[in-house]
Each structure stands twice: as structure tokens, then as C-alpha cells.
Request: fold
Amino acid sequence: MLDIKSWSIQWAGRTLTIEVGRFALQSNSACTVRYGNTEILVTVVKSESIRDGIDYFPLMVDFEEKMYAAGRIKGSRFIKREGRPSDDAILSGRLIDRAIRPLFDESVRNDVQVVITALAVDGENDAAIVGLIGASCALTLSKIKWNGPIGAARIGCKKDTGEFILGVTSKQIKSGESMLDLVVAGTADKLIMVEAGAKEIKNDVAYNAIEWGCEQLQPVVELIKKIQKEVGQEKEIVPVLDDDVADDMEEQARQETKQFIIDNADNMIFNNVKISRKERNIMIDEVKEAVKVHLTQKGIEEDAQNAGLKNIKE
Reply:
């Protein structure tokens, strides 16, 4: 008999329900998330064996659109299956990937697949956000080492009053009611990912929206933590491979680079607004040169310095 369990909270005026134990029982972890009348199934699997000959973490995030989720059947008499992924499906998968990828252990060389399948879409509640919450929950409940959970939300801002909207709908954005389309994802204490589009809003409005959005994620994060305490699996220990053991000097270069950027971010990165790509590239080059000088003063050899410099993200 299936051991089905579900948990619900009220969030932004709608019911958010997470259920486990009904589908995909042979996966490492799976859950369904329903928000309004949008329901998403998320499955997580990890290969037992390590993939040889790679120097990166092999993660695949796939967002599966199903036409039946919106109550549609293809018109062809002979072809009833979905074709290749739509642009929306690809962008939704990338959105979820950007939010969850930084929280994995980069030394893992096992294939990990996160598959998000739309079971029902109501056209009002964003399937990508519901899928991201589901991916966060499924990874948190799995044995895979992952530093979550995270929450996610799409934030709007009313054009007339400037009031922020939690769970802004596509209708509100297209009609011009909301002048902001912002997606935030983060843990209980840290912002992980931002994606935004807007109609000429002020910088402080965008900043306040991000800050406000992060506060609204907390009920979702707490719900996933509660579920983890009840049905979560014990996290596995990632084995250390011989070729993954970092050289002491390279590790020192990474730590010195990280601390240098933290100490000098206000003066070198946030000292003024970089509007164009050219200005941002110049800033990155200046940071890299400053880091090189700093690492040289610390006695770190040039070959080892590259380990720190390659972690400076554009």
C-alpha cells in the first residue's frame, strides 16, 4: 500500500500543497507540488557509478511540458506525442538549473537528473516557480548532498501604487498592471538567483523588491524543512577521488581570492553603476589584476593562482 503524505500552507492567498509517496517510487526522490490549479511532478535520480573522464559535475535539469496539462490534444490524427521542447520549456529548465546548481558539491561525478513534469497548468500560477519549489523539495528529501532547501517566487510591482505583488500572474504583467517581473530564489538566509524584467523602474525599487521577495520565501523554506524532518533521507557522504584532491597552494589561492573579493567588493565592484557590458568587463579585468598582485604578495605561484582566478565569475 502506498504511504502517501501531504503538507499544505497558505501562501500569497493560495494553497501550496506538497505530496510524496504517490508517484515515481523507484526514483531517488519525488514529489508533487500543487499551487492553485497548477500541479508539477518532480523526480530526482542519481547514477550508482561515477562517470569516468570528466572534470565537471554532470547535472541535467529537464522541464517536460505536456499538452494535456493545459487540457489540449494535438490536432494531427496520427501524431499525438509532444514534439521537441518549446522555448518556454527550455527557459523554465534553465531557470531551475541556475537556482539549484550552485548548491551541489562540485566534486560529484555521478550523473544527476532532475526532471520536472507539468501535470496540470491553470495559466495563472507560474509552472516554472512551482517546478523550482518541487525541485528544491525533492533534492532536500533525497540522499544526494545538496545545500538546500530553497524557495522561489515571482514578484511584481503595481504600476499605480508601487505595491509589491507576490505570485504575480502573466496576465498582470502583460496587461501592464505590474511594471516588474522578478524571480528570486534563495535559502533561509541567502539569495541564490535573480532573474528580472521591468519597465524603467528605479534602482531602489528593484533592490527593495528583491529584499521583499526573499522575505516571502521563508514560509516555503520552512515547509520543506518540516517535510525533511519527517520523511527526508540521510544525506550521503561524497567520496573524495584521488584526482579531485586539491593542491594545498591551489586551495590557498581560492581562499585568498574569495576573501580579497569580499574585502574589496565595495571599492572595486559596487563603487559605481556599470551600465554597459564594456564597463563590466573592464571592472572584471581590474579585479583579476588586483587579485594577481595580492596572490603574488602572498607567495602563491603563478600556476596555482589560476585556481583562484577561474572562480571569479562574470
In short: The chain has a mean pLDDT of 89.
